[in-house]
Amino acid sequence: MQYTVRVKPGSRRGPLVETTDDGLVVHVRERAVDGAANDGLIRALAAHFGVAPRDVTILRGHTARVKRVEVDQ
């Protein structure tokens, strides 16, 4: 299933996944440096959906805060 995700890197609230009308908002502690926030996003979504991190794929927006991700369940 595909989701639109807004990432909030460097958040003290993270890791946290919130559901909104527009999609998901994911707070991660990692900063947006060298892909660390993307790794944190993948781990947070995998834990939220109860799947392995390899089942979460970033489809679009690797360098943007708004991303399109796919979760294989």
UniProtKB/TrEMBL annotation:
Pfam families: DUF167 (PF02594). Signal peptide: none annotated. It comes from the Bacteria. Belongs to the UPF0235 family. NCBIfam families: DUF167 family protein. This is DUF167 domain-containing protein.
